[in-house]
Protein: Damage-control phosphatase ARMT1 family protein
Organism: Floridaenema flaviceps BLCC-F50
Amino acid sequence: MSVVAMASNEIQKLRPSLPIPTAIKGAEIGSFAHFTVTVRLPEIAQRVIAENEFPSSIEQNLAALIGEIPNGEIRDLQDADAPDLAAWTGYIEPYKGSNWLDVPWYFVEAYFYRRILEATTYFQVGSWQNVDPYEKQKRLGLETTIDAIGALSGFVKSAIASTTDIETKKSAFRQLLSADLWGNRVDLSLWPIMEGGSSRVESTREQSYILVDDTPIIAEKVVNFQNLRVDFIVDNAGFELIGDLCLADYLLASHAAEVVYLHLKAHPIFVSDAMSKDVLYTIAFLTQATDLNLKELGWRLKDYLDNGRLLCQENFFWTSPLAFWEMPESLDQELSNSNLIIVKGDANYRRTVGDRHWEYTTPYQSITSYFPAPFVALRTLKSELATGLSTEQLKQLPQQDTQWLTNGQWGVIQFVERDR
Ligand SMILES: O=P(O)(O)OC[C@@]1(O)O[C@H](CO)[C@@H](O)[C@@H]1O
């Protein structure tokens, strides 16, 4: 096979095998994407002004950004020192001069959060360099969910102590997986803490709210794991991250996993998405808690970090606007070493399928067979996109809940075997 044919074969491997539908766009009147671009994004930028004590120059930058949405023109980024500037020049090129509604929705969201950092001079040398504009929300997201964190840390402690018979192990894993799914309902970009966002914390919900549940397949695999590698493509800090860390704790303490990798955002995005600093802050928060279960959880996690069994890896791909089938070869290669990847949240789910208008009955596996390792998506539905549903579900759900696609009340646990 020629080099060119091999190269195109490699690229082909990294794309869905099905014809790829059109991208979701904010121009679709009445859609959640349209509501997000025209209403939610300006509101998020206003909250950034309200929750920080930026100087007037930065507040003017943010006000100007708000004024551009949605009829302003997409333009190149202007923070010259940013490490991701060259990559963003390439991302922006196809959309330069377009308004914020006529380009793919996921691009607009990633671009918006990156423009927030341009406005706050996040990448510039000076007083606001590396200052996370969502820090206050993230910390409150931990402090206001302390009771739920206590309950979950107590559960994982007892689960670790009872890693005896297979059925007990499967049951414990299933409950931790479910808690990690429902932690995704706490979403500060949709429901800010100051507007009662913490009230959405719960670790358990009736099984009927899980629309696709591959837990039995995953539990059967994991219960037989011995000293393997598990990777989390992490989503939100706060209570959701506690769910990730409790699941990681269980996998590491039971030696199902020898090592757990946390793949984290390279800069603040989607208000609550986690970076390495948020993981370290969360573990320190736990070690300093008065509650013994929280303290013990924190010290176990710190021990895993110190002994190289829990690893934090940031990558600018996770903050890029690209579909997951466009991930760099180096990252694809790295993830191919995993025995199981846990993909968290709605935005990552959207990226696994390129945020396209797939029929909701399209099998998830047939779109995502490009993935570099076996993976499970833990996602509460917060956008008008779904896969793997039945025609019966599509008849019933709108009658049960008119907002079923976007209110985070429904979830999926979808497993995809590696297929390349
Ligand atoms: O990835 P997450 O935290 O589960 O959700 C991200 C999100 O809040 O942002 C997008 C809308 O702005 C949607 O994908 C979803 O509502």
Summary: The pocket of 1-O-phosphono-beta-D-fructofuranose is lined by residues 36, 109, 184, 187, 189-190, 235-236, 270, 345-347, 350, 382-383 (CB under 6 Å). The chain has a mean pLDDT of 94. The longest helix spans residues 32-51. The chain is about 45% helix and 10% strand.
